[in-house]
Amino acid sequence: MGWSPANSDKEQHQKDADPTAWFRKYKHGGTSSLISTLTTVMTFPIYKTVFRQQLHSSGFRETVAQLNKEGPLKLYRGVAPPLLMKTLNGTLLFGLQGTLLQRLSRAESILPGTVLPALAGLGAGVVEALIFTPFERVQNILQNSGNDRSLPTIRSILVRLRSENLAQGFYRAFLPILARNALGSSLYFGLKDPVSSALREQGLSPVASSFFSGVFNSMVISLPLYPMSVLVANMQAKVGEEKLGLRASAQKLWRARQCSLILLYRGGSLVILRSCISWGITTAIYDRLENRTN
């Protein structure tokens, strides 16, 4: 039988009735993200290449030459925060979205059932931004080679950030991160099951449909939200310099990119590639674990 909103809602109500469902979603979210951290390690050089392009607006060859000159040891400087973030992020994102969806299902008489996953994803994205902005701040400082001498270790970075107020220290660029994560999570959870179900109707296996659902969603999310990631990288990568606000930082970035969308999106194709691999695998593993316990 093909997928339909009515069938999906009935299945969701049955899942929500299970008192252990909330814990299972946290566990499966963390497990799928932990397994997919292998892709984080494998694709970290891609991520770092993109980060340098975001920061310096340099070409691909120029950026690769710069990283090659720094050597293999520094290539993976800054990999620890994303590895930790990946596992914790998956645990929180999938688990919290499931918890919020369970609570929101009680208001289904007011809101259409089809929008509840996206709304729950929006709430999960807000909490995600609150918790993980400090991780992203440390990660971006580590990946900026200009900080290698003054801030050589994670400990030195933490000491420096503690000396700043929250808005300029750990929570620098919080607003664009909040907008990016909330919108991204809402789109992901709003599209995940409908896209996967549509692909299964075309004859794809459950694992393949989940994987390509993750790939498709990552493309839809990454492309329009990429400029926010560029802005975040430029706001967070430096410490102790001019403390411009969000609007002034965005204007400075736009001028630095010569008011060109092409330059602003430099490195965007690599972000989409990395995101497709990571979220495709994560989605496939998560759905597989969920289906095995249902």
UniProtKB/TrEMBL annotation:
SUPFAM superfamilies: Mitochondrial carrier. Gene3D superfamilies: Mitochondrial carrier domain. InterPro entries: MCP_dom_sf, MCP_transmembrane, Mito_NAD+_Carrier. Residues 8-18 have a biased composition (Basic and acidic residues). Belongs to the mitochondrial carrier (TC 2.A.29) family. Pfam families: Mito_carr. It comes from the Eukaryota. Its main location: mitochondrion. It is a multi-pass membrane protein. It is found in: Mitochondrion inner membrane. The keyword Membrane applies. Residues 1-20 are annotated as: Disordered. The keyword Transmembrane applies. One of its GO terms (cellular component) is mitochondrial inner membrane. This is Solute carrier family 25 member 53. It comes from Astyanax mexicanus. Keywords: Membrane, Mitochondrion, Mitochondrion inner membrane, Repeat, Transmembrane, Transmembrane helix, Transport.
